[in-house]
Amino acid sequence: MSLRQLLTEIAGGWVQAKNENFTGHPIANLLRRDLIQAIETTLPSPTDYLLKASAGAGNWADVPWLSILNPAITESTQSGIYPVYLFRSDGSGVYLSLGFGTTELKRQYGTTLAKQKAEELRSTIRGLDNRLDDWDQKVDLRSNTTLGQSYEWASAGAKFYPLDNMPDDNTLTSDLIELLEIYADVNLETNQNSMPAISNAQLISKPFLLLAGISGTGKTRFVREQAKTSQQFADTYCLTSVRPDWHEPSDLLGYISRLNGAAEYITTDILQFIAKAWRAIADSGLTIEVQESEDQGKRLVMAGERDELDKVLPYWLCLDEMNLAPVEQYFADYLSVLETREWRWTGDSFTYSCDALLKPATINAVADKEKLRKALGFDGEQYDALWADICQYGLGIPFNLLVAGTVNMDETTHGFSRKVIDRALSFDFGAFFPNDYNDFFTPTSCNKRLSYPIWSHAS
Protein backbone atom coordinates (compact mmCIF):
# COMPACT_ATOMS: atom_id res chain seq x y z
CA MET A 1 0.00 0.00 0.00
CA SER A 2 1.03 3.60 -0.57
CA LEU A 3 1.78 6.06 2.23
CA ARG A 4 -1.62 7.72 1.75
CA GLN A 5 -3.45 4.40 1.88
CA LEU A 6 -1.63 3.32 5.04
CA LEU A 7 -2.29 6.57 6.91
CA THR A 8 -5.96 6.39 5.89
CA GLU A 9 -6.28 2.73 6.85
CA ILE A 10 -4.68 3.18 10.29
CA ALA A 11 -6.55 6.38 11.19
CA GLY A 12 -9.87 5.05 9.89
CA GLY A 13 -9.63 1.76 11.74
CA TRP A 14 -8.18 3.04 14.99
CA VAL A 15 -11.35 3.61 17.03
CA GLN A 16 -12.76 0.18 16.22
CA ALA A 17 -9.38 -1.49 16.77
CA LYS A 18 -9.16 -0.11 20.32
CA ASN A 19 -12.30 -2.08 21.19
CA GLU A 20 -10.86 -5.34 19.88
CA ASN A 21 -8.14 -7.75 21.02
CA PHE A 22 -4.71 -6.11 20.92
CA THR A 23 -2.46 -9.09 20.23
CA GLY A 24 -1.74 -9.57 16.52
CA HIS A 25 -4.28 -6.97 15.40
CA PRO A 26 -3.96 -5.97 11.69
CA ILE A 27 -4.02 -2.23 12.48
CA ALA A 28 -1.09 -2.60 14.90
CA ASN A 29 0.80 -4.60 12.27
CA LEU A 30 0.15 -1.93 9.64
CA LEU A 31 1.63 0.70 11.94
CA ARG A 32 4.65 -1.26 13.14
CA ARG A 33 5.60 -2.95 9.89
CA ASP A 34 3.93 -1.67 6.72
CA LEU A 35 4.02 2.05 7.55
CA ILE A 36 7.68 1.84 8.55
CA GLN A 37 8.50 0.13 5.25
CA ALA A 38 6.54 2.71 3.25
CA ILE A 39 8.30 5.63 4.94
CA GLU A 40 11.71 4.02 4.49
CA THR A 41 11.14 4.00 0.72
CA THR A 42 10.60 7.78 0.77
CA LEU A 43 13.69 8.62 2.84
CA PRO A 44 16.71 9.95 0.90
CA SER A 45 19.12 7.79 2.95
CA PRO A 46 17.13 5.15 4.86
CA THR A 47 20.20 3.78 6.66
CA ASP A 48 20.73 7.17 8.33
CA TYR A 49 17.46 6.93 10.23
CA LEU A 50 15.97 4.83 12.99
CA LEU A 51 12.20 4.33 12.73
CA LYS A 52 10.07 3.14 15.64
CA ALA A 53 6.31 2.80 15.91
CA SER A 54 4.02 2.04 18.84
CA ALA A 55 0.38 1.03 19.06
CA GLY A 56 0.71 0.16 22.74
CA ALA A 57 2.17 -2.55 24.95
CA GLY A 58 -0.22 -5.32 25.87
CA ASN A 59 -3.05 -2.78 25.62
CA TRP A 60 -3.94 -0.18 23.02
CA ALA A 61 -2.30 3.23 23.28
CA ASP A 62 -4.61 6.22 23.13
CA VAL A 63 -2.38 7.95 20.58
CA PRO A 64 -0.33 5.72 18.26
CA TRP A 65 2.85 7.17 16.82
CA LEU A 66 5.79 6.59 14.51
CA SER A 67 9.06 8.44 15.14
CA ILE A 68 11.94 9.07 12.73
CA LEU A 69 15.30 9.59 14.44
CA ASN A 70 18.69 10.37 13.00
CA PRO A 71 21.03 8.98 15.71
CA ALA A 72 23.62 11.59 14.80
CA ILE A 73 21.14 14.29 15.86
CA THR A 74 18.77 12.67 18.36
CA GLU A 75 19.62 9.62 20.42
CA SER A 76 16.31 9.08 22.19
CA THR A 77 12.69 10.19 22.08
CA GLN A 78 13.15 11.17 25.74
CA SER A 79 14.95 14.39 24.77
CA GLY A 80 15.90 16.29 21.64
CA ILE A 81 13.82 16.87 18.52
CA TYR A 82 12.59 14.40 15.91
CA PRO A 83 9.88 14.07 13.22
CA VAL A 84 6.92 11.98 14.33
CA TYR A 85 3.54 10.90 12.97
CA LEU A 86 0.82 11.26 15.64
CA PHE A 87 -2.63 9.75 15.06
CA ARG A 88 -5.62 11.42 16.66
CA SER A 89 -7.25 9.41 19.41
CA ASP A 90 -10.66 9.58 17.69
CA GLY A 91 -9.24 8.45 14.34
CA SER A 92 -10.17 11.68 12.54
CA GLY A 93 -6.70 12.24 11.12
CA VAL A 94 -2.96 12.23 11.61
CA TYR A 95 -0.30 14.87 12.31
CA LEU A 96 3.23 15.06 10.96
CA SER A 97 5.04 16.92 13.74
CA LEU A 98 8.51 18.10 14.63
CA GLY A 99 8.24 16.85 18.19
CA PHE A 100 10.63 17.01 21.09
CA GLY A 101 11.05 14.75 24.09
CA THR A 102 9.19 15.68 27.26
CA THR A 103 10.46 12.96 29.59
CA GLU A 104 13.68 14.78 30.42
CA LEU A 105 11.86 18.11 30.76
CA LYS A 106 9.32 16.66 33.21
CA ARG A 107 12.07 14.88 35.11
CA GLN A 108 14.01 18.10 35.65
CA TYR A 109 11.21 20.64 36.11
CA GLY A 110 7.98 18.79 36.89
CA THR A 111 4.97 18.78 34.56
CA THR A 112 3.78 22.37 35.11
CA LEU A 113 7.16 24.03 34.68
CA ALA A 114 8.03 21.62 31.86
CA LYS A 115 5.16 23.04 29.81
CA GLN A 116 6.61 26.53 30.22
CA LYS A 117 10.04 25.27 29.17
CA ALA A 118 8.39 23.58 26.19
CA GLU A 119 6.97 26.94 25.08
CA GLU A 120 10.45 28.44 25.24
CA LEU A 121 11.87 25.49 23.32
CA ARG A 122 9.18 25.79 20.65
CA SER A 123 9.94 29.48 20.16
CA THR A 124 13.66 28.77 19.95
CA ILE A 125 13.24 26.03 17.35
CA ARG A 126 10.82 28.03 15.20
CA GLY A 127 13.18 30.99 15.33
CA LEU A 128 15.99 28.89 13.90
CA ASP A 129 14.19 28.05 10.63
CA ASN A 130 11.57 30.26 8.95
CA ARG A 131 10.22 27.29 6.98
CA LEU A 132 8.36 26.37 10.16
CA ASP A 133 6.20 29.48 9.67
CA ASP A 134 4.11 27.34 7.30
CA TRP A 135 3.63 24.65 9.96
CA ASP A 136 0.99 24.88 12.70
CA GLN A 137 2.07 25.61 16.27
CA LYS A 138 -0.82 23.76 17.88
CA VAL A 139 -1.56 20.04 17.91
CA ASP A 140 -4.96 18.67 18.97
CA LEU A 141 -4.90 14.90 19.43
CA ARG A 142 -8.22 14.79 21.35
CA SER A 143 -6.59 12.51 23.88
CA ASN A 144 -7.84 11.74 27.38
CA THR A 145 -4.53 10.38 28.68
CA THR A 146 -1.65 12.31 30.24
CA LEU A 147 0.86 10.81 27.82
CA GLY A 148 -1.27 11.58 24.78
CA GLN A 149 -1.81 15.16 25.93
CA SER A 150 1.93 15.64 26.44
CA TYR A 151 2.45 15.08 22.70
CA GLU A 152 0.27 18.13 22.07
CA TRP A 153 2.55 20.63 23.82
CA ALA A 154 5.73 18.89 22.64
CA SER A 155 5.69 20.14 19.06
CA ALA A 156 7.64 22.85 17.29
CA GLY A 157 5.48 22.64 14.19
CA ALA A 158 2.97 20.26 12.63
CA LYS A 159 0.68 19.63 9.67
CA PHE A 160 -2.68 17.91 10.04
CA TYR A 161 -3.98 15.45 7.47
CA PRO A 162 -7.75 14.87 7.97
CA LEU A 163 -9.10 11.39 7.31
CA ASP A 164 -11.81 12.66 4.96
CA ASN A 165 -9.36 14.79 2.95
CA MET A 166 -6.04 12.94 3.02
CA PRO A 167 -3.46 14.56 0.68
CA ASP A 168 -1.96 12.60 -2.20
CA ASP A 169 1.34 10.73 -1.90
CA ASN A 170 3.34 13.52 -3.55
CA THR A 171 2.20 16.05 -0.94
CA LEU A 172 2.79 13.65 1.94
CA THR A 173 6.27 12.83 0.70
CA SER A 174 7.12 16.48 0.04
CA ASP A 175 6.09 17.48 3.57
CA LEU A 176 8.14 14.67 5.08
CA ILE A 177 11.25 15.57 3.08
CA GLU A 178 10.90 19.24 4.08
CA LEU A 179 10.55 18.34 7.75
CA LEU A 180 13.60 16.08 7.55
CA GLU A 181 15.59 18.97 6.07
CA ILE A 182 14.44 21.27 8.88
CA TYR A 183 15.29 18.54 11.38
CA ALA A 184 18.82 18.29 9.98
CA ASP A 185 19.37 22.06 9.92
CA VAL A 186 18.11 22.87 13.41
CA ASN A 187 21.03 22.60 15.81
CA LEU A 188 20.01 22.76 19.46
CA GLU A 189 22.44 22.77 22.34
CA THR A 190 21.41 20.22 24.95
CA ASN A 191 22.39 19.66 28.52
CA GLN A 192 23.82 16.30 27.54
CA ASN A 193 27.07 17.93 26.51
CA SER A 194 27.60 19.32 30.00
CA MET A 195 26.82 16.06 31.75
CA PRO A 196 29.81 14.77 33.69
CA ALA A 197 31.39 11.79 31.95
CA ILE A 198 32.36 8.64 33.79
CA SER A 199 35.67 8.78 31.94
CA ASN A 200 36.52 11.69 34.28
CA ALA A 201 35.69 9.62 37.36
CA GLN A 202 37.54 6.98 39.34
CA LEU A 203 36.04 3.59 38.44
CA ILE A 204 35.74 1.44 41.54
CA SER A 205 36.32 -2.30 41.46
CA LYS A 206 33.01 -3.41 43.01
CA PRO A 207 29.47 -1.97 42.93
CA PHE A 208 28.87 -2.74 46.62
CA LEU A 209 30.57 -0.54 49.24
CA LEU A 210 30.82 -0.81 53.02
CA LEU A 211 31.56 2.48 54.77
CA ALA A 212 32.67 1.70 58.32
CA GLY A 213 33.24 4.16 61.14
CA ILE A 214 31.83 5.60 64.32
CA SER A 215 28.96 8.08 64.25
CA GLY A 216 29.77 11.53 62.92
CA THR A 217 32.61 10.61 60.56
CA GLY A 218 30.64 11.53 57.41
CA LYS A 219 29.73 8.13 55.95
CA THR A 220 26.24 9.05 54.75
CA ARG A 221 27.43 12.50 53.73
CA PHE A 222 30.10 10.90 51.57
CA VAL A 223 27.46 9.06 49.52
CA ARG A 224 25.33 12.21 49.16
CA GLU A 225 28.29 14.23 47.91
CA GLN A 226 29.15 11.53 45.39
CA ALA A 227 25.59 11.60 44.03
CA LYS A 228 25.65 15.41 43.81
CA THR A 229 28.52 15.27 41.31
CA SER A 230 26.08 13.88 38.74
CA GLN A 231 24.29 17.26 38.70
CA GLN A 232 21.04 15.25 38.87
CA PHE A 233 21.01 14.52 42.59
CA ALA A 234 17.26 13.98 42.98
CA ASP A 235 17.27 11.25 40.35
CA THR A 236 20.55 9.51 41.16
CA TYR A 237 20.35 9.24 44.97
CA CYS A 238 18.18 7.14 47.25
CA LEU A 239 18.58 7.00 51.04
CA THR A 240 16.98 4.08 52.87
CA SER A 241 17.19 3.60 56.63
CA VAL A 242 17.59 -0.07 57.49
CA ARG A 243 15.14 -1.29 60.16
CA PRO A 244 16.15 -3.72 62.91
CA ASP A 245 13.23 -6.02 62.04
CA TRP A 246 14.39 -6.70 58.47
CA HIS A 247 15.04 -10.42 58.13
CA GLU A 248 14.25 -11.40 54.53
CA PRO A 249 14.71 -10.04 50.98
CA SER A 250 11.06 -8.97 50.74
CA ASP A 251 11.86 -6.16 53.18
CA LEU A 252 14.23 -4.81 50.56
CA LEU A 253 12.60 -5.71 47.24
CA GLY A 254 8.89 -6.08 48.01
CA TYR A 255 6.49 -9.01 47.98
CA ILE A 256 3.26 -10.42 46.57
CA SER A 257 0.14 -9.67 48.62
CA ARG A 258 -3.16 -11.54 48.27
CA LEU A 259 -5.13 -9.62 50.87
CA ASN A 260 -7.72 -8.56 48.29
CA GLY A 261 -7.89 -11.97 46.66
CA ALA A 262 -5.87 -11.10 43.55
CA ALA A 263 -2.08 -11.27 43.61
CA GLU A 264 -0.62 -7.75 43.87
CA TYR A 265 3.07 -6.89 44.07
CA ILE A 266 3.91 -4.41 46.84
CA THR A 267 6.97 -2.48 45.70
CA THR A 268 9.54 -0.64 47.80
CA ASP A 269 11.50 2.57 47.31
CA ILE A 270 14.58 0.45 46.67
CA LEU A 271 12.98 -1.60 43.88
CA GLN A 272 11.61 1.57 42.30
CA PHE A 273 15.09 3.11 42.43
CA ILE A 274 16.58 0.03 40.75
CA ALA A 275 13.94 0.36 38.02
CA LYS A 276 14.85 4.05 37.65
CA ALA A 277 18.49 3.07 37.05
CA TRP A 278 17.28 0.66 34.36
CA ARG A 279 15.30 3.44 32.69
CA ALA A 280 18.37 5.68 32.71
CA ILE A 281 20.24 3.04 30.72
CA ALA A 282 17.35 2.66 28.27
CA ASP A 283 17.05 6.45 27.88
CA SER A 284 20.78 6.75 27.13
CA GLY A 285 20.32 4.90 23.84
CA LEU A 286 22.24 1.75 24.76
CA THR A 287 20.88 -1.44 23.23
CA ILE A 288 18.90 -3.68 25.58
CA GLU A 289 18.05 -6.96 23.91
CA VAL A 290 17.69 -10.69 24.44
CA GLN A 291 20.78 -12.70 23.53
CA GLU A 292 21.42 -16.43 23.71
CA SER A 293 24.67 -18.06 24.74
CA GLU A 294 25.63 -21.71 24.87
CA ASP A 295 26.42 -21.71 28.58
CA GLN A 296 23.59 -19.50 29.90
CA GLY A 297 20.77 -19.68 27.36
CA LYS A 298 18.63 -16.60 26.70
CA ARG A 299 18.99 -13.58 28.96
CA LEU A 300 18.56 -9.82 28.87
CA VAL A 301 21.77 -8.11 27.72
CA MET A 302 22.87 -4.47 27.52
CA ALA A 303 25.27 -3.66 24.69
CA GLY A 304 27.09 -0.61 23.36
CA GLU A 305 30.40 1.18 22.89
CA ARG A 306 32.82 2.42 25.54
CA ASP A 307 32.16 6.12 24.90
CA GLU A 308 28.39 5.58 25.25
CA LEU A 309 28.90 4.80 28.94
CA ASP A 310 29.74 8.48 29.47
CA LYS A 311 26.02 9.19 29.13
CA VAL A 312 25.02 6.75 31.89
CA LEU A 313 25.31 8.25 35.35
CA PRO A 314 25.92 6.18 38.49
CA TYR A 315 22.86 5.72 40.71
CA TRP A 316 23.71 5.71 44.42
CA LEU A 317 21.62 3.64 46.83
CA CYS A 318 22.60 4.38 50.44
CA LEU A 319 21.57 1.82 53.07
CA ASP A 320 21.96 3.80 56.27
CA GLU A 321 22.99 1.82 59.37
CA MET A 322 23.10 -1.27 57.20
CA ASN A 323 23.92 -3.74 59.96
CA LEU A 324 21.09 -2.82 62.32
CA ALA A 325 19.55 -5.99 60.83
CA PRO A 326 21.35 -9.21 59.80
CA VAL A 327 22.76 -8.35 56.36
CA GLU A 328 23.08 -12.00 55.30
CA GLN A 329 19.31 -12.39 55.70
CA TYR A 330 17.59 -9.37 54.16
CA PHE A 331 20.37 -8.82 51.60
CA ALA A 332 20.64 -12.48 50.52
CA ASP A 333 19.11 -12.10 47.05
CA TYR A 334 21.30 -9.14 46.13
CA LEU A 335 24.47 -10.83 47.38
CA SER A 336 23.75 -13.93 45.30
CA VAL A 337 22.79 -12.12 42.10
CA LEU A 338 25.77 -9.78 42.47
CA GLU A 339 28.06 -12.70 41.62
CA THR A 340 26.30 -13.24 38.27
CA ARG A 341 27.16 -9.82 36.83
CA GLU A 342 29.15 -10.28 33.65
CA TRP A 343 30.90 -7.72 31.47
CA ARG A 344 32.33 -8.87 28.15
CA TRP A 345 34.57 -6.61 26.09
CA THR A 346 35.59 -6.92 22.44
CA GLY A 347 37.76 -3.91 21.74
CA ASP A 348 35.63 -0.89 22.67
CA SER A 349 32.35 -2.83 22.40
CA PHE A 350 30.78 -4.35 25.48
CA THR A 351 27.90 -6.47 26.68
CA TYR A 352 26.59 -6.65 30.23
CA SER A 353 24.23 -9.21 31.70
CA CYS A 354 23.03 -10.26 35.13
CA ASP A 355 20.61 -12.73 36.65
CA ALA A 356 17.24 -11.43 37.81
CA LEU A 357 16.59 -9.89 41.21
CA LEU A 358 12.88 -9.72 40.47
CA LYS A 359 12.20 -13.11 38.89
CA PRO A 360 9.95 -13.48 35.82
CA ALA A 361 7.90 -16.09 37.69
CA THR A 362 7.14 -13.48 40.35
CA ILE A 363 6.17 -10.85 37.77
CA ASN A 364 3.91 -13.24 35.89
CA ALA A 365 2.21 -14.34 39.12
CA VAL A 366 0.85 -10.81 39.58
CA ALA A 367 -2.78 -10.37 38.55
CA ASP A 368 -2.39 -6.81 37.23
CA LYS A 369 1.01 -6.49 35.57
CA GLU A 370 0.12 -3.07 34.19
CA LYS A 371 -0.21 -1.77 37.76
CA LEU A 372 3.23 -3.16 38.59
CA ARG A 373 4.61 -1.66 35.40
CA LYS A 374 3.31 1.76 36.39
CA ALA A 375 4.66 1.41 39.93
CA LEU A 376 8.13 0.70 38.52
CA GLY A 377 7.96 3.62 36.07
CA PHE A 378 7.93 1.59 32.86
CA ASP A 379 4.46 2.82 31.81
CA GLY A 380 5.73 5.07 29.00
CA GLU A 381 5.28 3.73 25.47
CA GLN A 382 9.01 4.06 24.92
CA TYR A 383 9.47 1.18 27.37
CA ASP A 384 7.06 -1.21 25.63
CA ALA A 385 9.71 -3.60 24.34
CA LEU A 386 11.81 -3.36 27.51
CA TRP A 387 8.88 -4.19 29.77
CA ALA A 388 7.96 -7.19 27.62
CA ASP A 389 11.53 -8.49 27.98
CA ILE A 390 11.53 -7.85 31.74
CA CYS A 391 8.31 -9.85 32.10
CA GLN A 392 9.99 -12.74 30.29
CA TYR A 393 13.52 -12.58 31.73
CA GLY A 394 13.19 -10.61 34.97
CA LEU A 395 14.73 -7.44 36.38
CA GLY A 396 18.43 -7.77 37.18
CA ILE A 397 21.01 -5.47 38.76
CA PRO A 398 21.68 -2.55 36.38
CA PHE A 399 25.38 -1.88 35.87
CA ASN A 400 25.03 1.77 36.95
CA LEU A 401 23.68 0.90 40.42
CA LEU A 402 26.09 1.48 43.30
CA VAL A 403 25.00 0.24 46.73
CA ALA A 404 26.74 1.86 49.71
CA GLY A 405 26.02 0.64 53.22
CA THR A 406 27.05 2.66 56.25
CA VAL A 407 28.30 0.53 59.15
CA ASN A 408 28.59 1.31 62.85
CA MET A 409 29.82 -1.48 65.14
CA ASP A 410 28.30 -1.35 68.63
CA GLU A 411 25.98 -3.35 70.89
CA THR A 412 22.94 -2.57 68.68
CA THR A 413 24.37 -3.89 65.40
CA HIS A 414 25.26 -7.21 63.78
CA GLY A 415 28.60 -8.44 62.46
CA PHE A 416 29.37 -9.42 58.87
CA SER A 417 30.07 -12.87 57.50
CA ARG A 418 32.90 -13.54 55.07
CA LYS A 419 30.29 -13.78 52.31
CA VAL A 420 29.44 -10.10 52.71
CA ILE A 421 33.02 -8.91 53.19
CA ASP A 422 34.13 -10.81 50.07
CA ARG A 423 31.60 -9.06 47.85
CA ALA A 424 32.18 -5.56 49.19
CA LEU A 425 34.70 -2.78 48.75
CA SER A 426 35.38 -1.48 52.25
CA PHE A 427 36.27 2.04 53.35
CA ASP A 428 37.31 2.93 56.90
CA PHE A 429 36.06 6.25 58.26
CA GLY A 430 37.68 5.59 61.61
CA ALA A 431 39.99 8.61 61.81
CA PHE A 432 39.19 12.26 62.46
CA PHE A 433 41.45 14.57 60.51
CA PRO A 434 42.46 17.77 62.33
CA ASN A 435 42.10 21.08 60.58
CA ASP A 436 45.22 22.27 58.85
CA TYR A 437 45.45 26.06 58.51
CA ASN A 438 47.37 25.76 55.22
CA ASP A 439 44.59 23.69 53.62
CA PHE A 440 42.33 26.74 53.58
CA PHE A 441 44.65 28.36 51.02
CA THR A 442 46.19 25.52 49.02
CA PRO A 443 44.42 22.21 49.69
CA THR A 444 46.78 19.26 49.84
CA SER A 445 44.03 16.82 48.86
CA CYS A 446 41.07 16.86 46.50
CA ASN A 447 37.81 14.97 46.24
CA LYS A 448 37.55 12.05 43.84
CA ARG A 449 34.39 11.35 41.90
CA LEU A 450 33.59 7.64 41.90
CA SER A 451 31.67 5.65 39.31
CA TYR A 452 30.55 2.10 38.64
CA PRO A 453 32.93 -0.70 37.58
CA ILE A 454 32.98 -1.80 33.94
CA TRP A 455 34.61 -5.17 34.59
CA SER A 456 33.29 -8.23 36.40
CA HIS A 457 36.46 -10.33 36.63
CA ALA A 458 40.22 -10.01 36.32
CA SER A 459 41.82 -11.08 33.06
Textual characterization of the structure:
- The protein is of the alpha/beta class.
- Helices cover 34% and strands 24% of the residues.
- It is built from 15 helices and 20 strands.
- The strands form six sheets. The protein has a five-stranded antiparallel β-sheet, with helices on both faces.
- A hairpin with a 3-residue loop joins strand 11 and strand 12.
- Helix 1 runs antiparallel to helix 2.
- It is elongated.
- The chain starts with a helix and ends in an 8-residue tail after the last strand.
Helix/strand-derived category reads: alpha/beta
Number of E-type strands: 20
Sheet with the most strands: spatial strand order: 1-2-3-4-5
Distance between the amino and carboxyl termini: 54 Å
- Quote the beta fraction: 15-25%
Q: How many distinct folded domains?
A: 2
Spatial shape: elongated
Continuous helix count: 15
Q: Radius of gyration in whole Å, from Cα?
A: 25 Å
Helix fraction, binned, reads 25-40%
Unreliable stretches covering 5 or more consecutive residues = 189-195
Oligomer: single chain
- Largest sheet data: 5 strands, antiparallel
Return the average pLDDT rounded to an integer: 88
